[in-house]
Amino acid sequence: MTARTRRRRDDQPPPLFRLLREQISFRRWYIHILLWIAVIFMGFPLFYAALVSTQNNAQMFRLQMIPGDSFSFNLQTVLDRNIARLMFNTFAVATMVTLGKVVLSIFSGMALVYFRFPAKSLVFGFILAALMVPGEVTIIALFRLVALELGWGNTWTALVVPAVASPTGVFLFRQHFASITPELSEAAQLDGAGPLQFLLRVLVPLSRNTITALVVIMFIGGWNSYLWPLLIVTNPDLQVIQVGLSTLDDGVEIGRTWGPIMLGAVIASIPPIFIFVLMQKQFLQGFALTRSK
Amino acid sequence: MSAFLFTILASALGALVVGAILKRRGRALRGGLALGAVAGLLGSLATMIPLQYCVLDPEHHIFFKISVLGRTLTVNAVALLGILLVIVVVWAFALAIDRLRHHWRTRSATVWKADTAPGTFVGYDFSPWIFLAPTLVGLAVFTYYPAAQNFFLGTQLARRGVANTAFICLDNFASLIASRLQDAHYYILSDGFIWHAENARYLAVFGNSLFFSVFIVIVANVLGLSIALLASQKIRGASVYRTLMIWPYAISGVVVGIVFAILLGGGGSGFMNQVLRLFGAEPVPFLSDPWWARASVVAAAAWNKLGFNVLIYIAALQAVPMELMEAAAIDGANAWKRFLNVTIPMISPYIFFVVFLNLNYSFFDLFAVIENLTEGGPVNATTNLVVDIIRVGVESRDIGKAAAQSIVLFMVVIGLTYVQFRVMGRRVTYGAD
Predict the structure, then answer these.
(1) How confident is the model over A105-137, as pLDDT tens digits?
(2) Are the Cβ atoms of A39 and B115 closer than 8 angstroms?
(3) Does the distance separating the beta carbons of A185 and B120 come in below 8 Å?
(4) Is the dihedral of CA B153, B156, B158, B164 positive or negative?
(5) Cross-chain CB nearest to A111 (options B131, B311, B386)
(6) What residues contact B276, with CB distance under 8 A and at least 6 apart?
(7) Which of A41, A231, B225, B316 could bridge B350 with an S-S bond, Cβ 3.0-4.6 Å?
């Protein structure tokens, strides 16, 4: 670059957009390196778990950083310990909880937006206030209620029914329905549609994104729930994977056999990670919806 | 008789205090006195009738001793808690009555106007209730009833699996900070300041919860924002990096606990210590030293939440208008100053959002991580409020005491929510939306 052109550039105000861009492109290579360090840092724990799932204890304690030869043994162990049953149970319970939450929330959201009834704001307040009561606060009394008073101990009813009423879901759908123009329901009423028809033909198709967002959040939450099943279910045939993980030991070696446990941990993590990565946009949107007034 | 005296005393004190406070705020003295008297009367009755005035009974004596600068004070914890409870309830009554009176005076027709929103279905009187019934019943039975039941169980001697209970006043609460045993061990917290053993244990559990929240929030947010700053740059493959970093959010607390247990556990032959040995470092007692164990829990939890924070912060950073950055650059602000004075204020709503979510997570959702990483040990060093509730209520079968602890936890929720509303409310007045 000659002195002449440089001077001419200095005379004009520098195009800042390009200036910032250039700065960024200059820094590019080390941003990539830092990001790869972050990616490795984030990924390492599960990568190591996957590595250990192919090893026996001796290989693990030798700090062997290549796959070991015990994968089939570990797989046989977790299958003997009925991991298939645990995974199926978890899938069934999480699906039922998610389905229940979505359906009940849609109906409640619809009632709060498309109907006029006395004490509506009181009802909405009643639902919203439940957001302030985390499950951990009520867990002791809930345990007493469900196990002692209702006698639901060791049933899936105890896992599903207390979880299906969802203030988050109601709030999500209420906000979403309120943002849909009222002309739609007026037009539907002019065409003679009842509330159920309007719900099925108009609202549900319009709410596909909100439904997906809620499904992702609720399914991952249901899949990962641990404390409640740990307390209420003791029958191994009905247990969920999160509680069952620590029972995946082969029971032969002294101390814990880490290979099968890690294999179980990896298997248990695949469904939620898969759904989360696939649906991250909808997930984020769901959070944005719950946040905005 | 003493119950009668107690009520009169509460009413008189309420009148004096509320009257004085309202007078200082420039309100009429007589109104304040009347408000305080009514609040004192109603508040003390509302508290003491369910408790059957038991805090006045001499049989409920659970003491704790405090030695401050050589003097030993013996305090009856039940009476102290009872009086504190009455003060809080009376205060709440005073606020509520004042708010109601204000509301009554200034209410206008618009406040109570019937809902005439367009687009509502006309002529369906029962449908909304049918639509709402499952949700309302579910919340009433499985959220509100247990929450209310906590207040009942907290005053009872209740055992897990036994239907019968017996009223024991505030003993469950008092035993959190005091002990029936007069000559139990003393913990010395610092010079001249001695606290009773039982008491120090619950305080330590509370302290663990605070420690976890503070450090998880700091670590997960500083790292999360830093990574988001890198990943939101205009570089090739930014979305790939994002996907590669956010997935740990979907992993359960159990898996996080187990995986970090093999990374950090195993004593000197554990993974991390073998790696440290390669670099010639001394082995670190990750899970057997109290402070290292706490740090391990923080590391595991922060790792779990980091991806989510990165996701939110990237969305926040992409919403910062480029023109603002350019304007700051024209004014001569360097990158650090632009970050501090433009980026941070612009994304501050997101920062509050993420901080409060992380706070809630670290107060309430750490059970699975702790249980599978340290099991609350060594010697309760990583036992937080939720883990302790399960220990006491399920493993030691003391439902009453666990319910009392649940109520303490509930107070934490209310505190957190209050702070959140205050902070968010302030943001709304500043915000342009």
Answers:
(1) 999 999 998 888 888 889 999 998 898 888 889
(2) no
(3) yes
(4) negative
(5) B131
(6) B282, B283, B284
(7) B316
Q: Does B324 touch chain A (CB under 8 A)?
A: no
Peptide bond into A205 cis (omega under 30): no
User: Structure pTM?
Assistant: 0.84
Enter the tokens of residue B97.
């009555």
Side-chain-side CA neighbours of residue B190 (13 Å): 2
Cβ separation A226–B368 shorter than 8 A: yes
- Please tell me whether residue B74 adopts helix, strand or coil conformation: strand
* Contact check, Cβ <8 Å, A127/B139: yes
The Cα A42–Cα A192 span in angstroms is 56
Contact flag A242-B246 (C-beta cutoff 8 Å): no
Among B149, B266, B311, the residue with its CB nearest the CB of A280 is B311
CA distance B240 to B404: 48
**Over the stretch A19-54, which tens digit does the pLDDT of each residue have?**
555 555 545 677 888 888 888 888 899 899 999 888
Of B135, B364, B367, the CB nearest to A108: B135
Structure token digits, residue B238: 């930014």
CA distances A96 to A104, A163, A188, A214, B230, Å, are 12, 10, 31, 14, 40
Residues 6+ apart with CB under 8 A from B107: none
Q: Which two tokens stand for residue B387?
A: 């883990």
